[in-house]
Amino acid sequence: MLAVIRKLSKSWLAAVLFGLLIVSFALWGINDVFRAQIGNDVVKAGSRVVTASDFQREYNEARKRQEEANGRPITLEIANANGLDRALLNSLATRESMAEIISRMGIRPADQLLVAQIQKIPAFFDQISGRFDRKTFDQRLAENGLDAERFDQALRDEMASAHFGAAVAAGLRTPRAYGAMAAIYAQESRDLAFFVVTPANVEKPPPATDAQLTAFLKQNAAQLTRPEMRVLTVVRFLPPAGAENAPIDPAELKKLYDFRKDTFSQPEMRTIVQIPAKTPAIAQQIVARLGRGEAPAAVAKAVGVDALTYDQKPRTAIADRRVGEAAFRMASGQVAPVQGELGQAVVKVVSVTPGRVVTMEEARPALEAELRKNAAAEKVYAQSQAYDEAHQGGASLTEAAQKSGAQLTTVGPVTAQGAGMDGQPVAGLVPQILQQAFGLPSGGESDLSEAGQGLFYAVRVERVIPPTLPPLAEVRAQLAQVYETRELYSRMQAKADELAARIRKGETFETVASSAKLGVARLPGLTRQNAEQVPQIPQEILGTALGARPGDVFITRPQQLVVVVGQVTNLKVEPNPLTALVADRSRFDMSMAMFRELSEYAPTTAQEKLKTRVDINKARAAIGMEPLATSTPSTKK
C-alpha cells in the first residue's frame, strides 16, 4: 500500500494538490510562529521537525538506493560531491512543509483508516497465515530503523496527500471558455502558398581568394584552433604469443573441474504446492481433498489460508528447510503432511525435473579457456613486476620495457580525448592512459599503473604540441568549401529577402514568383491536425505557417541550401461535430497543464509561508561530514 501511495503522490494527482495549495495560500496566510533558531533539528517546518538521527537514517537509505542503481559502492565523499546531502535536505524540507500545510487545512486520516491500510501491506503478513502479524510489523520496522509512531505518521501524511489530491482532481476544471478557445485554435484552417529558392536561382559566387580565406580563418580561430596534442610512448604488458593455445595440465584441469562441478551441474527442480495447516485434523482434511484431485487454491481457501506454489524450484529455494527436505524425498504426485520449522503444512509434489551433472568432457572447453586466461594473467603480472623492478632501479622506460619483454609503442600526435590528426580515435589508448599522459610534462614518465581487467601500462610523453591554428595550406580545400557555401547561402537569403519585400509591398505572390522563374506550391486547408499527414512538405515550413498570421510573409530554411518564402491566407474556423469533443478534451488537458505549472511553485510557497528552516551543517554533522564555511541556519525561499 505504501508503494501505491508513493506512486500516486508522484502522479498528476500530486500536481493537482500542489496547484490547489497555491489557491489556499492566497485565501489565508500562515503566521510565522517559529522565528527562533531550530535547536538541534536539521529541518523545522511549523510543528514538524526532522532530527539529526532522522536525517542520518534517510541519508543512508538514499545512498543505498544510489549504490543499487549504479551497481557499485558509493563513498560518503562521492555522494556529497554530487550533492546528495543538499538534495536530500531540500527534499525533506519540501516533504515536511507540504505535510504541515495539509494538516493545518484539517485533512487528517482517521485512526481506523490508518490501521486498515497498515493491515493491507503484504510486508507485514505472516508467512504461514497470510495475514497481518504484529511481530512481523515490528520486525520490519526495526530492520529499517523505524518505530511504529514514525511509520504511522509517514503513512498518515501520504494518505492525506493522496486523498486530498484525488478530491481536488475530481472537482477542479478550467472554464469552458478555455476549452472552446483551444478547440478553435486546434481546428482553424489556413491556405499556404510558398516557393523555394535554391542555388540554381542565384549567381554562383567566385572561388575564394587566399586573402578571403585567411581573414575567414582568423575570424573563426576559436573553432578552428587544434587542441593540444602529444606524442606518447606506451608500454603494454601482454601475454606471450600462442598463449591462447598453450597446453593444459590434466591435473589442473581435473582440479578445476572438481572445484567448479556444482556450478556447471543442474540441480533437481520440482513444482510443489504448500498449504499451511493449523491443526493435524485440518492437515488430514487437506490431504484427503488434494488426494481427490481438488484444486490447491480452492482447498486452501476453504480452510482460510493461501496456498504457496514453488514452480520449478531447487530444494534451496524452499523457505522452510524441513518442508524442502521432505518435498524432495516425495514422489511426483504424492501428497503428505509435513512438520516444518515454521509450522505444519501439507505438501503436494506436482512435477519433478531430474538434475543433471555435467561431465568434465562437456565442461572441458570452458575449463581450458579459464585455465589459459589465468595462466596468461599470471605471466602478464610477472612481466609487469619485472618492468617495475627495473624502472624503480633506475632504468628508463625503454630500458625497463626491453628487460621485461613488454610491448613498446609510440603513438600520436593524439588529443586528450584520444583522437589522432584525422580526428579518428587512436586504437589502444584507454582513458586511464590518456588521463595520466596529459598530466605529465614533456619527457615525463609514469610509474607502472593498472587500468583494470588485468591491463598494466606505463607511458612517457615524448613531445607536447601546443594548441595551434592550422596553416592555410593544410585546410584550404575544406575552408574554401565552407566559405563558398556561406557565400552561396548569403546570396540565396538576399534573394529571398528581396522577393519577400516585394510581396509585402503589395505585389501578388504569383507575380513575384513568376518574375524569378519560381514555381508556386499551394496547400489549402492546412490545420494542426492534418499537418503531419503531408510528408512531402518539411515540418519546418508547416510549423512556421501554422504560427503565422493571415497575410504574413515568412522566410524559413528547412534544410541545407534551401530557402523558402511563404504566405498564409484565408484563415477560418468551421464548426463541426467534433468541435464539442475537442473543446471538452482540451479543457481537461489545459487543467492538467495548469496544475503542473502551479505545482512548480507550491513547494517553495509552502516553505515561505511556514518560514521553514534548514541547517546544512547539522545535517552534515549527522553523517560525519565537516561543516561548511557558513554555519547559520537558512530559511528556505
Task: Give a written overview of the molecule.
The protein has 24 helices and 16 strands. It has helices at 2-9, 12-27, 52-70, 76-81, 84-104, 111-118, 134-143, 148-171, 176-187, 210-219, 221-224, 250-264, 280-291, 296-302, 321-327, 360-392, 397-404, 431-437, 472-504, 509-515, 539-546, 579-599, 602-610, 616-622; strands spanning 43-45, 48-50, 189-197, 229-236, 269-276, 308-313, 335-340, 343-353, 407-414, 449-452, 455-465, 521-526, 553-559, 562-572, 613-614, 634-635. A hairpin with a 2-residue loop joins strand 1 (43-45) and strand 2. The chain is extended, with a radius of gyration of 37 Å. The two termini are 33 Å apart. Residues 1-38 have low confidence and may be disordered.
Structure characteristics:
4-stranded antiparallel beta sheet, extended, 16 strands, alpha+beta, Triger factor/SurA peptide-binding fold, 4 domains, Chitinase A, domain 3
CATH level-1 class of the largest domain: Mainly Alpha
Give the number of helices: 24
Question: What radius of gyration results from the CA coordinates?
Answer: 37 Å
Strand order of the largest sheet: 2-1-15-16
Strand content: 15-25%
The CATH architecture of the largest domain is Orthogonal Bundle
Structural category is alpha+beta
Quote the CATH topology of the largest domain: Triger factor/SurA peptide-binding fold
**Mean of pLDDT:** 78
The backbone outline, from C-alpha atoms, is extended
Q: What is the helix content? A: 40-55%
What is the distance, rounded to the nearest whole angstrom, between the alpha carbons of the first and last residues?
33 Å
Number of domains: 4
Instruction: Note the quaternary state here.
Output: single chain
Report the uncertain regions: 1-38
Q: Could you tell me the number of beta strands?
A: 16
Reported for the largest beta sheet, the result is: 4 strands, antiparallel
